[in-house]
Amino acid sequence: MSQNLLEVENLRVSFPTPHGRVEVVKGISFALGRERLGIVGESGSGKSMTGRAILKLIKAPGRVSVDKMVFAGENLGALSERQMRPIRGARISMVMQDPKFSLNPVITVGDQIGEALKVHTSLRRRDIRERVIKMLEAVHINDPERVAELYPHQVSGGMGQRIMIAMMLIPEPDLLIADEPTSALDVSVQNQVLDIIDEQIRTRGMGLMLISHDLNLVARYCDRILVMNAGQVVESCAAVDLQKATHPYTQGLLAATPTIDESRETLPVLDRTTWAGT
Question: What is the pTM for the complete model shown?
Fold first, then answer.
């Protein structure tokens, strides 16, 4: 029996244009166990579309085709929208990029976190409240009783992202898809948020798909890395071996990344002709 939590084969995502349909994800295949998988690449490489396609969040006129997309033994590709609802949030959760656009401005933090439990369980209101407070504590929010009564505009960006993580983790999913979870945060807060995600993933024995454009960040927090370019996976490696990458695109990304003791006057620009057609 397969030990993989998720198996994807030949996933394709396309959208119409005045010149015909254009594929933004071009037949990628990968497997994910209860591990931390990083998907990296430039903006427009197809990373986020891959995560959304797994949850079947791409609507018309977008089009998704896949030969195989199996999660925990269940064929996601064959499920209807109604059949996907018990899976989204409860078994697969997704943390979006910016909490300002993901949190409802007219609902309190506590009610938003508890909503997934209301939908997917039969817990009493008091029990839901207790779980919400414990979840806020788990993501290192001080004074959780007070924060639960606040509205999203009353919290900082870093706290908003912790609240989003709490929302996604409270149903205890098997897989967390984190799409640029720290892109809206300053550097001092980024590592705190990622440490919380990492702590929860390890504690709960979940699978993680971390989508990012930051190669070094992903190398720190993941076990394996897929490098995407123009809708395709161009390289797959263990995170510890990222600096030994052999594909010219990955090497170009690494070379263009500044270091804290940077001495180069000019950072190199990606030479896309070196991998054209690969």
Answer: 0.88
